[in-house]
Design a protein that fits this description.
There is one protein chain. The chain is of the alpha/beta class. It has two domains: 2-278, Metallo-dependent phosphatases (Purple Acid Phosphatase, chain A, domain 2); 284-405. Helices cover 29% and strands 23% of the residues. It is built from ten helices and 17 strands. It has helices at 27-45, 65-80, 105-110, 143-146, 150-153, 157-178, 297-307, 331-337, 370-379, 388-405; strands at residues 2-6, 50-53, 85-88, 115-118, 122-128, 131-138, 185-190, 192-193, 211-212, 224-228, 234-238, 241-244, 261-267, 272-278, 284-290, 314-322, 343-351. The radius of gyration is 23 Å and the shape is globular.
């Protein structure tokens, strides 16, 4: 059985884009859809027996009609070609308000042939051209939603974390007893794993929720564990394979050096083989220069730009220069040199030797994630040490609520 596994599509991300007058769509939205199209073409060409999507179809849980149409067209193309599609709910697809539908609920409501949806922990028997497959699913668990219930309201966020992990373990133990040993099984989960590596920038709050230990997922009953939630591709275990495919396209500069793509998984009678397939998505490029000792800062920046092709890339130019010398930069020349870029931002870091920077870690050329900023601030407030952990946990919960509404 051949499976294509991908995750974290995030249709609706429009960072660094602009409106394409020919289509009316944001150019970054078109990038993400193009990556999805390449995946669909690959699935049809192989062909694969099943496509597993491990969560976060959209940027927000109430996607626009256009975003829903773009996603649905590609899901239906696979299903109509006889390739079943399994869709898991991620944190960006669900609401924190109890009883409301998630962003993919319409597929389950319409009961579309060849499309399976999971918004709750369950076992589903998916029919594929290569035979049946048991799919155990663990969608994203919202801490903030849980804490609206009386059983959790009195618990601290750390206690809620422990409770969630215990419940996930209980669920997996129960499912293990229900599985048919004669039918292969895979686990699909949208969750952070303690041993996973994060990107250098987490603009979408990835990694700031609760995490589960890897040992909770490395169970012998599964031939493969398909994960979503963390944008960095990584294989956490090989027996069984526990894999994050990573996001399908780059979201921000924290993913600049990461390959993006999907997993091809082959389930044989006695073994499982996996392959990461990279996709040619939009490149990001950081150009950085310290000009404090430069005799001709404009020419030095122009030389830096000329040495690294910027055509069709998303570029950020970071440079440091003394405050009193800032006017030596010919901004018109710099902008002209960057004209070929898909998007270019210029971020000067002004250095004034007469002033003492109180918190140098916070003086970043690119804005830090709010939770990272809070963490750096608390590290310097020894008087808050006794409540530091609780403050961070509470901030994480608030950020998750904001993220789910799309206000981040």
């Amino acid at each position: 059985m051949k499976i294509l596994h991908f995750a974290d599509l995030h249709i609706g991300v429009e960072n660094y884009g602009r409106v394409n007058p020919a289509t009316g769509l944001n150019t970054r939205l078109e990038d993400f859809v193009q990556s999805f199209d390449r995946l669909v073409e690959a699935a049809l060409k192989e062909p694969v027996d099943l496509v597993i999507f491990a969560g976060d179809a959209f940027k927000i849980n109430e996607p626009s009609n256009t975003h829903q149409r773009l996603f649905a067209q590609r899901v239906m193309r696979l299903a109509q070609a006889g390739i079943p599609v399994f869709l898991l709910i991620g944190n960006h697809d669900q609401t924190n308000r109890y009883g409301e539908s998630h962003a993919l609920d319409i597929y389950a409501t319409l009961d579309i042939p060849g499309v399976w949806v999971s918004g709750k922990p369950q076992i589903q028997i998916v029919t594929t051209p290569a035979g049946p497959l048991q799919v155990v699913s663990i969608p994203h668990v919202s801490k903030s939603a849980l804490m609206t219930f009386d059983d959790y309201a009195s618990q601290t966020l750390s206690e809620v974390d422990r409770t969630i992990v215990e419940q996930v373990e209980d669920i997996l133990n129960y499912f293990a007893q229900q599985l048919n040993p004669d039918i292969p099984a895979v686990l699909v989960a949208h969750v952070g794993v303690e041993q996973a590596k994060m990107g250098s920038e987490q603009s979408m709050s990835i990694g700031y929720g609760f995490t589960v230990p890897l040992g909770l997922l490395t169970r012998s009953e599964y031939r493969y564990v398909a994960l979503g939630h963390i944008h960095k591709h990584q294989i956490l275990c090989q027996d069984p394979y526990v894999v994050y495919p990573g996001s399908l396209d780059r979201v921000d500069f924290g993913e600049e050096k990461e390959d993006k793509g999907y997993m091809l998984v082959e389930l044989y009678q006695d073994k499982t083989e996996v392959e990461f397939v990279p996709l040619p998505c939009r490149p990001f490029l950081t150009l950085e220069k310290n000009l404090t000792q430069s005799e001709d800062p404009t020419e030095d920046l122009l030389s830096l730009i000329a040495a690294k092709p910027v055509q069709d890339k998303i570029v950020r130019l970071l440079y440091t220069i003394q405050t009193q010398r800032a006017d030596e930069i010919d901004s018109k020349k710099i902008k002209k040199a960057l004209e070929g870029a898909f998007h270019a931002s210029i971020r000067p870091q002004l250095e004034d030797p007469s002033e003492r920077v109180r918190m140098p870690d916070l003086a970043e050329a690119e804005p830090l994630h709010p939770l990272k900023t809070l963490d750096l601030y608390l590290q310097r407030r020894s008087d808050l040490a006794s409540i530091q952990a609780d403050l961070v946990k509470r901030a994480e919960g608030l950020w998750q609520e904001l993220e789910a509404t799309g206000l981040t």
